Amino acid sequence: MTGKPEVLFVCVHNAGRSQMAAALLAHHAEGAVDVRSAGSAPADSINPAVREAMAEIGLDLSREVPKKLTTDAVEAADVVITMGCGDACPVFPGKRYLDWQLEDPAGKGVEDVRPIRDEIDRRVRELLAELR
């Protein structure tokens, strides 16, 4: 990697895990990493329990919308982290691919989303330490 690393988080709907991961990495990296998220089959909106769980820690997802995964986004990334949709993500040589096995927050209340958020936060901090 040369220059500022770019990380792409991918999950199926881009309404939960990948949105939390992108927001957490952007927050902790303070501009040192370019961060994107996308979904292989994006939902219409962010999961309300995810928005609430992130707001509890001061991160506002109210303006975020699920985005469609594109080949260009994968090609531009240095690190691609999938969360339950690895087969839908194109693979390019020279990229670092990680698959984070995380519970899907879909259909869960905020009390069940908090532990998922906290596990994503732990992994994001580890990733950031590796990228620096």
Automatic annotation (TrEMBL):
InterPro entries: Ptyr_pPase, Ptyr_pPase_sf. CDD domains: LMWP_ArsC. GO terms for biological process: response to arsenic-containing substance. Keywords: Arsenical resistance. It comes from the Bacteria. Residues 5-130 form the Phosphotyrosine protein phosphatase I domain. This is Arsenate reductase ArsC.
